[in-house]
Amino acid sequence: MKHSRFTALDLVQIALVAALYVLLTALPVLSNFSYGAVQFRISEMLNFLAFYNPKYILSVTIGCMIANFISPQSLGLIDVVVGGGSTFIFVSLGVYLFKRFDQVEVLGGLFRLDHLFFSVLFSISMITIAWELNFVLKDPFFLTWFTTAIGEFTSLLLGAFLVKRLDKVIDFTK
Q: What does the DSSP assignment read for 106-162?
């Protein structure tokens, strides 16, 4: 049985992407839009790195957990567990389900099909965040699901667009 082990370089890259996720979520100018029932996390674009190398699933999960831990809303460990768990499950599921479409471009080459499918799935997965905000803050469930899903979908489309272009100059597979 072959065991996959992370190299020192892998661990550094995982930590750097996790730190970048935290910065893009929690920087004061960005944090106003990163938390709550209406959110637009620029950091969510990093989810697409997992389609190039699965080690980045850990990066975005750890980054999400840290960002939620230091959230100005202070929802506590429930936010760390629900947000981090949801990120881990749905990014992993998205890579598993949609990776086979990574060579298909849509909308005149603007997006990769796997990224577009993932954007839809991950936006739907905001049901978990809507449940959490309803449970903890008593935010209205369906409205919260709608607003978090729209914000997520918008940030993911932007991310899909940017990551596809960055892939031409940065090798994300390493």
A: ETTTTEEHHHHHHHHHHHHTTHHHHHHHHHHH---HHHHHHHHHHHHHHHHHHHHHH
